[in-house]
Amino acid sequence: MAQLSNQLLEQIVEDSLPYASDGEVRPVIPMYDDTKKDVLGVTVWTGEEYFHAGKTDLYVPMQSTAKIVTLMLALNDFGKKRVFDMVGMEPMGDFFNSIGQLERHQTEKPFNPMINAGAIATAALVKGGSVEERFERFMTFIRQITGNPDLVMSEEIYEAEKSNGARNRALAYFMQSTGAMIMPPEEALDLYFRTNAVMMCTEDFARVGHFMANEGRDPETNIRLISPEHLRTVKSIMLTSGMYNSSGQFAVEAGFPLKSGVSGAIIGAVPGRMGIGIIGPAIDAKGNSTAGGALVKSLSNELDLNMFGVIEHEL
Amino acid sequence: MAQLSNQLLEQIVEDSLPYASDGEVRPVIPMYDDTKKDVLGVTVWTGEEYFHAGKTDLYVPMQSTAKIVTLMLALNDFGKKRVFDMVGMEPMGDFFNSIGQLERHQTEKPFNPMINAGAIATAALVKGGSVEERFERFMTFIRQITGNPDLVMSEEIYEAEKSNGARNRALAYFMQSTGAMIMPPEEALDLYFRTNAVMMCTEDFARVGHFMANEGRDPETNIRLISPEHLRTVKSIMLTSGMYNSSGQFAVEAGFPLKSGVSGAIIGAVPGRMGIGIIGPAIDAKGNSTAGGALVKSLSNELDLNMFGVIEHEL
Amino acid sequence: MAQLSNQLLEQIVEDSLPYASDGEVRPVIPMYDDTKKDVLGVTVWTGEEYFHAGKTDLYVPMQSTAKIVTLMLALNDFGKKRVFDMVGMEPMGDFFNSIGQLERHQTEKPFNPMINAGAIATAALVKGGSVEERFERFMTFIRQITGNPDLVMSEEIYEAEKSNGARNRALAYFMQSTGAMIMPPEEALDLYFRTNAVMMCTEDFARVGHFMANEGRDPETNIRLISPEHLRTVKSIMLTSGMYNSSGQFAVEAGFPLKSGVSGAIIGAVPGRMGIGIIGPAIDAKGNSTAGGALVKSLSNELDLNMFGVIEHEL
Amino acid sequence: MAQLSNQLLEQIVEDSLPYASDGEVRPVIPMYDDTKKDVLGVTVWTGEEYFHAGKTDLYVPMQSTAKIVTLMLALNDFGKKRVFDMVGMEPMGDFFNSIGQLERHQTEKPFNPMINAGAIATAALVKGGSVEERFERFMTFIRQITGNPDLVMSEEIYEAEKSNGARNRALAYFMQSTGAMIMPPEEALDLYFRTNAVMMCTEDFARVGHFMANEGRDPETNIRLISPEHLRTVKSIMLTSGMYNSSGQFAVEAGFPLKSGVSGAIIGAVPGRMGIGIIGPAIDAKGNSTAGGALVKSLSNELDLNMFGVIEHEL
């Protein structure tokens, strides 16, 4: 087992960066062009020390990494029973925006909160008198758990999400037709699009991971912002469903809770040990950062982060 | 956190047994009739001590719990790359015997080794000159890891499996048609049906769990029978896919690797701590023991076995 | 072969009415309650004579029978090639509002213009500067082909369609996401909901059928309103797909082009012979009038309307 | 409307042959290689006169064209009710060998007798004490309706079908698992493979078409071999489902009952007018002869064969 250090991270970034060429940046993200393709950055936050490597001053939208924050808020607002009456906790085995899977299983609820349908249904479970108020509560929460009061939403990304939102609208209206939406679809979608557009750098992502890896305490006040049971629920679901259709592979190769977004961001939460924030904009067909995924697997091997057991380094 | 003891187990069995009435015994298992419905037994093996409660002298067929043993053998025989060239490692989100999922994804390989299609494909990756030889190797391996030289296959169960095997034949021939089978379908099926018919009691299942929870050592000789990397691979896949379509829920509510079979057997492997063997023949529509599932969740809460974090018992 | 007469029709209505008890009226149609369940009426228009039986003064919304009118308009406006670039002509084998079928086939176009998705896509192919103008053209056309200048849309039905339109919205946005919509989804949906709400009685439906059964001529002026090729295209698609998931059965048992709606309306077009208009509000799970379907089959047998051959009545 | 003549047919063959380059010959048919790709032949039999064009001395296996003969026999043997209790009459909208469609609809019966699953289920409804006896009855019937006592099965084709039959085995075993098979799967498959391997030339195919287009009489004895009702049932199903996933398109463009096979054979039955036999070995992705399909459409236009109406030739 290696010792965590900036040098080690630099080495892993160097080894992982070539995998960026296997992916593509997502064209509908306004700030993404080919100059962003060969980029990779990582921050690890142990609660005592930060470690950085690669490009760590890039701000990207949270995209699907926001799903875990929305889920934490919904669990706080409505409790486990009510939330999972509306959305399942099973991995899906289909693409993240699948609508046929909803229909095929003739169920009123989407498979889990990590797929788009499930996240839209979960967004409807964040309390507030209006979309603005619900989103303000999201922003307050994400600023608290990151300890970063400067986090903001990008209007440009939000507009792009909205104007490219046809598939997500289809999911929301389909759920309305089956009774799975407790809010007008356009309101839940609006909140969903906004959360996707919150901008973060690797350090912010690492802080979210650290918050979840530990006891869910406000880094400033040390007050618990979420119960341990809710936190472990979210982490379990991250492990089984956080990396889109490659979740099973990452459970094997990395072995700890992860959540990715199509901006190429990855949040890692190693229980009791560390939070990891990664940005690698080039993503594969399933939606995961190619270089970021390689980095996660190397880091897990080097630091023995796999919850299912260690391999022998001397072999 | 409670202390593990026979009394604790007895209490949990008593509390879990009523859930048996929510399930049904599987009629195609010859020895199963309604007298088996209200039955529940558990053995926990820590490597130092056995704990028992409920009915522990019942022998039932391994059914799908055999899938993890077949996978370990295949990994030993062909290595990780070759095995996962033939079968995936992603959770599926469909019923364990789904054939549409194979077709829909136009993939040559089944989703994972825990579903029937994947297990049949994995059976084809156990080395041997004939079905008999392959099955003999399976028996040698399962006797070694349980330390029980008396384990045998039930001819009666094997015949019942074969004569009710139409759906599994459909899966095998479908895979032959896509190139996912490297063995004549009837041979792979024959091996698969035999492994399903190996008879075990709760102690045997607990010993398999303990073998996997630790370093994969022969309990007699202490020699490693499988590499740590293979072992953690199997445990990851158990967590994401071991409990059929309820795997996500068990990842949340129990939080450690489990594998169930339609005989109502459950094997649990708590990394570094213990092996758990459960028999509760009444199963739900997804294939899991109803009373056994309740028992697993209680045990996880009482003994803080959830890998994703503990809840607060004083709350 | 029997002789067409009011008495014959009365007899067939009497024999068919009991099938109404096998169906249910669709609750979202405002005017439909249980008093409408045991209702059946039919008009046959040969071009020379009208025949009536049962309740023929009831006005019901066109619902899906409007799909054939929209398709005729779209063919007139854009021609066959352009229309069928946007929508297929294959029967589907899934329920009329299936969305999974769209996704599964990864096609940009819906199966055919008789299913909801296809009809919404077809509505986008009716020319006009606004939804109002497009709908006005629809009304002009339907008034022409029926020779009935009094046809109007029911505001109440239109509002009900809109407020129960979640599933259709899901279809429209899904198609927008794949490029199958050439109009903003809400506009195509608005036109679609309006056409569904045009009110007709059995005679009006029979006149549409007669228009299609013959040369597509304006009953007043005798001028052709649509080319013979477009007309036969629409009739072929009615035969293979006009009766939802029972189209195959009606091709066998009735054997001529039919189109049904969930209001219990059925339009029949027997090439060169007659138009048939039926209203029987109780529908089966697939969306077809149960009594109306029985009536269609009897009428086909009695009058030898089956295009695929006659049975022997003397047998 | 043109006059039917050998010259007309020659012209249509010449115009249609270039479409052969859009298709591929099916490699598992032993006699098919690239020399068969640019081949097209047609025979039309009016009951009074034969017309021929192109290559008409090629013998090819019936493949799926045998499905209509099997269906006629099953209807004769068990009657309409019993046959359609076991197999549906609805078009499917999925590929001819789809297995997911069976599963998705959780039905015990396949969609229709023209898809592989349905034809295998129908083969089980041909009476006989053994596969040999059932097949002998098939041969007797096909020799009768063609008036050709020399028809034989190709052992080579039969063996090829059997050894490439994994997908069809999957369908048969799947149906056994749902109760849709009333015969051991291997026996039904054996009969199915044999019927697929019966060898015919264009004249034989045209004779089958003529038998069906008229009253189903033995061409020698003029005795009815099948009831008019069964005959029209089969023709309806041909129209809605006979050309695989392009059945809807052929209903529009040709407009009369057709059945194709992957050998590139097409049987056409124009009610009351003629039988058509076509061989064009190059098939498209859906399984239909590309040149043969073009020929069918031209012939329909030239001779006004479309049952849904004529276009205006003077336009």
TrEMBL record, chains A, B, C, D:
<keyword id="KW-0378">Hydrolase</keyword>
<keyword id="KW-0007">Acetylation</keyword>
<dbReference type="InterPro" id="IPR012338">
    <property type="entry name" value="Beta-lactam/transpept-like"/>
</dbReference>
<dbReference type="InterPro" id="IPR015868">
    <property type="entry name" value="Glutaminase"/>
</dbReference>
<feature type="binding site">
    <location>
        <position position="262"/>
    </location>
    <ligand>
        <name>substrate</name>
    </ligand>
</feature>
<protein>
    <recommendedName>
        <fullName>Glutaminase</fullName>
        <ecNumber>3.5.1.2</ecNumber>
    </recommendedName>
</protein>
<comment type="subunit">
    <text>Homotetramer.</text>
</comment>
<comment type="similarity">
    <text>Belongs to the glutaminase family.</text>
</comment>
<feature type="binding site">
    <location>
        <position position="161"/>
    </location>
    <ligand>
        <name>substrate</name>
    </ligand>
</feature>
<feature type="binding site">
    <location>
        <position position="192"/>
    </location>
    <ligand>
        <name>substrate</name>
    </ligand>
</feature>
<feature type="binding site">
    <location>
        <position position="116"/>
    </location>
    <ligand>
        <name>substrate</name>
    </ligand>
</feature>
<feature type="binding site">
    <location>
        <position position="64"/>
    </location>
    <ligand>
        <name>substrate</name>
    </ligand>
</feature>
<dbReference type="Pfam" id="PF04960">
    <property type="entry name" value="Glutaminase"/>
</dbReference>
<feature type="binding site">
    <location>
        <position position="168"/>
    </location>
    <ligand>
        <name>substrate</name>
    </ligand>
</feature>
<feature type="binding site">
    <location>
        <position position="244"/>
    </location>
    <ligand>
        <name>substrate</name>
    </ligand>
</feature>
